[in-house]
UniProtKB/TrEMBL annotation:
SUPFAM superfamilies: cAMP-binding domain-like. InterPro entries: cNMP-bd_dom, cNMP-bd_dom_sf, RmlC-like_jellyroll. Pfam families: cNMP_binding. It comes from the Eukaryota. Residues 44-148, 168-219 form the Cyclic nucleotide-binding domain. Gene3D superfamilies: Jelly Rolls (2.60.120.10). This is Cyclic nucleotide-binding domain-containing protein.
Length: 219
């Protein structure tokens, strides 16, 4: 990170540490400008929901955690929604009929998590562990529900609906679809990218949401 990036990050941290009622319009302008390309906010800006971005910037707070620190534990009661400003976290879940947790995916800068427990008023479904130093913007449950409840429910239902319409998943019940959705992550590829090679040990299952792939076999 160069000096300019460090300066901008410190500006963001200082503003997010301010009591929300003491943030000036200049503070909000800086927050909005410097977070507009973060994945979570970018999706709303692209769909014309700039007001959501503005309200989040008015109410977000700051949290920092070191590598290997736990953000929250599975089965705990959810009170906070997290947006990763910088860093990577691992998502660890409990598989059916097992007691040990398994890491199923990583979330990186621009990702968000913690919304499901707040939307459904149920315990956390995963343990989240920092895999690097992490800087978060956070929203408390009350503000999250006021600002994001409707839009986040709509987004989640739409994304789960895509899974439910897939022919090979039509016999799955809602809980199985939900578990698949929760433990998946989106990846984008460009023409010419190789997903895997013949003979590789299978590590993942790929579901094509958009685009075409060629399957080639060595003879």
């Amino acid at each position: 990170m160069d000096e300019q990036q460090q300066y901008i990050q410190q500006q963001l941290v200082n503003i997010l540490k301010k009591p929300t009622e003491k943030r000036t319009q200049k503070d909000l302008h800086i927050l909005i400008n410097e977070t507009k390309n973060i994945g979570f906010f970018y999706q709303y800006i692209q769909s014309g929901d700039n007001d959501i971005h503005y309200k989040c910037c008015k109410n977000m707070k700051y949290q920092y955690l070191n590598q290997d620190q736990i953000v929250f534990q599975i089965d705990s009661i959810g009170s906070t929604f997290y947006i990763i400003l910088q860093g990577t976290v691992g998502v660890h879940i409990r598989l059916p009929n097992q007691t040990d947790l398994r890491r199923v995916k990583a979330l990186e800068t621009g990702s968000s998590f913690g919304e499901l427990a707040l939307l459904n008023n149920k315990p956390r479904l995963a343990t989240i562990i920092c895999e690097s130093e992490c800087h978060f913007a956070t929203l408390e449950k009350k503000q999250f529900l006021q600002i994001l409840k409707e839009k986040e429910e709509e987004r989640i239902n739409n994304e789960m609906g895509i899974f439910a319409k897939m022919p090979f998943l039509k016999t799955w019940n809602a809980n199985l679809i939900r578990n698949l959705y929760l433990n998946s992550q989106k990846q984008q590829y460009i023409k010419g990218d190789k997903l895997f090679k013949e003979g590789n040990e299978p590590q993942e299952v790929f579901i094509i949401l958009q685009g075409d792939f060629a399957v080639l076999q060595i003879r």
